[in-house]
Each structure stands twice: as structure tokens, then as C-alpha cells.
Amino acid sequence: MTVVLVINSGSSSFKYQLIDVETEQALASGLVERIGADVGAMTHKAADAPYERELPIPDHAVGFEVMLRAFDEFGPSLIENPPAAIGHRVVQGGARFFHPTLIDDLVEINIDELSVLAPLHNPGAVQGIRAARTAFPDLPHVAVFDTAFHQTLPPAAYTYAIDHDMARKHRIRRYGFHGTSHKFVSEAAAEHLGRPLKELKQLVLHLGNGASITAIDGGLSVETSMGLTPLEGLVMGTRSGDIDPSVLLVLARREEMTPSQLDDFLNKRSGVLGIAGVSDMRDIEERRAAGNGAAMLAFDVYIHRLRAYLGAYIAQLGGVDVISFTAGVGENSPLVRAAALETLGFLGVRVDPARNEERRRGIRVISTDDSAVTVLVVPTNEELEIARQTLTVTSAR
Asked: Are β-strands 322-326 and 201-207 bridged in parallel, bridged antiparallel, or unpaired?
């Protein structure tokens, strides 16, 4: 049995995929959204055209009933394709969860307690876990944590330079995120190149609306840009990334902004959106090409931060063998890829313009044959990675 149902749950929605791990095929996928609103919505995609419906979905439990009805009516049949397990994406595992973990009542409680470190993410995951355990009481449920891959960070990388006792009391440290994607991409890159993972120094740039870069040495995360929360690091679609902490003090004093207002400001109204008024890199590039000054500045700030992190992480690794771009922007923006690497010629990094502009599916090399560093575009597949890790746990029972 190699079929896994993967759940990615938020506070008012959840995404799902039914995946055959052996064939690496998604048999079905869907989205249940606007949970708790007057009218909810569901989209279910299988072999035929997408099925869409609007109906009341008061909570996650009803959402799972709606999902199960969609499988019954539109396939594939869960009787003919029975899941061996349910895999759950959980953003924050703190310093408690180093590996994918079989969910029991205590694990569920621990995930809920870690909501203090991820108030925007873990509560929704818990709601999804509870609804799924009710809907599938006889199946094993496994939590796969975004932070788990980064548990190999050395103390020098995860420690913030603040009062030690205060940091320990409130569990303040760098946890890192997008770990499932960074793990998948780094392993896929090594396999594609036919080189042992343990011999490679890699940089993975996960560039989507949220963005992070991770330095991976021999398959282990040794440095990553996101920190206590997904706010730290690179400039993102709506998130500021790195910022002088005193900016918050200035805004609190002069604008009388509350902590929740500051949180909203930095997470939802900053990044390239704050500079240019749009958050999608495609819009930024289009406006930049038309000569829009704000878009030009937003792009330059975005690339400036990328280059700064690339240089710092190459120094931390002591060199680099492979640089991989993934996620929405990383996979689809030749302009961002070329600009990010433009200043690394002194290290022998050379991007082939024709290869970089090529658009096709699958992993592809975009560096020149004589480049000292191999540059790849690697489509990420976090759902497949979650399904793989879920089966690893359940097969060991």
C-alpha cells in the first residue's frame, strides 16, 4: 500500500492530495476553503474536469465530509485506492520534533502548544488533524514538520544574540521553514546529477510569495534565512524580511501601533508589496519593463538581498557545488535567476542565457558546461515529500 492522503490545513481552509508514492503520481487534489463563512467552497480535481461547489462549511469536520463525498462522487474511489496513512503538513515543530512523527493524543497536544511560536499556522494544522483523525480513525496519521529539516543547524546558526535566559524561557531561536521543500530539492538535485548527497555543498533558493535560502552541507541544513518565524530573511511578496528591530520601536512610538498591527504591517503589507503596491513578481517584472520606478526599486531591493545571502552562505559553506532555484518565482523567473547570480562570476558561476530562458517541465541545468558551479531549476513537490516521509514512519511500525 503506497497511497497517502496529504493534508495541508489552515484556519479557514485545507488543501489535499491523494498520492501514489510508488508512481509519484497525484491521483487527486483539492481545496476546501472559506470554512466558517456563510458560504464555503470546494474544488476537487481528479482525472476529469475539476468539480466545484459552494455550500456551507461551518468547520473542518464538515469540510472533511465534503471532501469524502467528492471522492465518492467524482473519484478516484478511496475503496479502490485506499490510503495507507494520512500525512499532515505542520509548520512549526519547535525543538521537540526532529523527524516525521506518528500522531497520538500527546503529539497533538504538543503541536497545539507550539502555536505560541506559529499562531498563524499551527492552530489551523491542529484543526485539520482533529478532523482527519475523526474522519479516518483507523488509519495512522503522521505530522511532517517544516522545521524538522533545520534541526541540524549548529548553535552558532540558530542562536540569537539576546539574553540567554530570556531566549530559553520563551524558546526564542532560529527554527527555519520550508524545510520539506529544501530537503526534497537538495535530494532531487543530487539524484539528477548522479552525485552522492553527502559529497555536495548546496544552496537551495525557495522563492515564492514566501522565500528562503538554505545552505546544505552533505545533505544537512547548516544555515537558513527564516528564523523564529517565516518573517526573517529574504524580501518576500508581502513580508519585509530582515529589518532593524528599532523600526518597530519607532512605529510603536510615532504611530502608536500595537503588536498585532506591527505584525500585520510586516507580514501582510511589506515586502515588494510595500515598495511597489503589488506582491506578484510577474507584476513587478511587467511594471519594471514599462519603466515604473517603484517596481524597479522593489526588484532591485529583492535582488540585493538575494545576493547578500548567497555570498554569506557560500562563505559559511566554504564554497558551493550546486545552486538550485525552486518554487513559483524560482522556477518561473529567468530574470530573477540571472540577476541573483550575475555578480558571482568571480566564483566561476556562469548561467547559459538560452538554458535559463527555456521553459519546460522537470529538473534542468541552466549553467554553462564550463561553469564551476552547477545551477539548476528544480520543481519542488512538498506533498510528495510529505507522502514519502509518512510512509517511512508507518512502514517502520
From this structure: parallel
- Cell numbers of 111, please? 503541536
What are the tens digits of pLDDT across the range 202-238? 999 999 999 999 999 999 999 999 999 999 999 999 9
Q: What is the 3-state secondary structure (H, E, C) of the chain?
A: CCEEEEEEECCCCEEEEEEECCCCEEEEEEEEECCCCCCEEEEEECCCCCEEEEECCCCHHHHHHHHHHHHHHHCCCCCCCCCCEEEEEECCCCCCCCCCEECCHHHHHHHHHHHHCCCCCHHHHHHHHHHHHHHCCCCCEEEEECCHHHHHCCHHHHCCCCCHHHHHHCCCCCCCCCHHHHHHHHHHHHHHHCCCHHHCEEEEEEECCCEEEEEEECCEEEEECCCCCCCCCCCCCCCCCCCCCHHHHHHHHHCCCCHHHHHHHHHHCCHHHHHHCCCCHHHHHHHHHCCCHHHHHHHHHHHHHHHHHHHHHHHHHCCCCEEEEEHHHHHHCHHHHHHHHHHHHHHCCCECHHHHHCCCCCCEECECCCCCCEEEECCCCHHHHHHHHHHHHHHCC
Q: Pairing mode, if any, of strands 3-9 and 85-90?
A: parallel
- How does pLDDT run across 172-209, given as a tens digit for each residue? 999 999 999 999 999 999 999 999 999 999 999 999 99
- Measured distance CA(241)–CA(156) in Å, rounded: 20
> Is the separation of the CB atoms in 223 and 170 below 8 Å?
no
| Among candidate residues 17, 21, 18, 62, the one with its CA nearest the CA of residue 39 | 62
Please answer whether residues 314 and 203 qualify as being in contact, where contact means their C-beta atoms are separated by less than 8 angstroms.
yes
Nearest to 305 by CA among 362, 385, 228, 225: 225
Residue 138 appears among annotated catalytic residues: no
- Annotated catalytic residue, options 20, 38, 138, 146: 146
d(CA 5, CA 383): 9
Q: pTM to 2 decimals? A: 0.93
d(CA 153, CA 223): 6
